[in-house]
Amino acid sequence: MSQNILTTPVRVMTVDDHEILRGGIKFLLLAFDDIELVGEARSGDEAIRLCEQLQPDVVLMDLMMVGMNGAETTKAVRKKYPKIQVLILTSFFENDLVQQAIQAGAIGYLLKGVSIDELANTIRAAAMGRSMLTEEVVQALLQPHKQSSQSLYELSKRQQEVLALLALGLSNEAIAQRMKLSPSTIRHHVSQVLNKLGVINRTEAATTGMRIGLC
Length: 215
What we know:
The protein has two domains: 10-139, 3-Layer(aba) Sandwich (Rossmann fold); 146-211, Arc Repressor Mutant, subunit A (Orthogonal Bundle). The protein has eleven helices and five strands; from the N terminus they run E-H-E-H-E-H-E-H-E-H-H-H-H-H-H-H.
């Protein structure tokens, strides 16, 4: 879905090997008329099969599952069905888990204690291809990790910092205040980031950066 306004309910599928948790998510989503739960999967293998059958807009993916874990399942789903967005919904928050999930293709990362409204808003954004990452997630993505992507795109440390704040949805002025630099300097850095990543706008820059682990 590329429109800014969703005209039909967002089709959601949950993937979790705990029946009670799947039931809880199902109950929460009933509160929203514009979100429709179309299926539930108990494993990664079942999730991949159901994606073909149900064609959901957004998949809520647990990370820790028997068999294929959430990151592996996310990678498989995104490779086979690139139009389906995957949101991680887990009880675990560790830097390496966040990095693995985003690099596997997840558009967002939420903890299971998230409020019902934040969950719904993040689902809606994901259906439109937009990330709504918390600052904690962005900070986890900034922690040391494999440098192959960094060397490939040759972003400087300062440009990576700008990209991370850009991914939070901050304006150039807000980034300038955060980094204590002039707005014109930030505009220059943003322009350089777009050029180096080969994208045309801030949203694509944030998405590309998250996909390859640069932000």
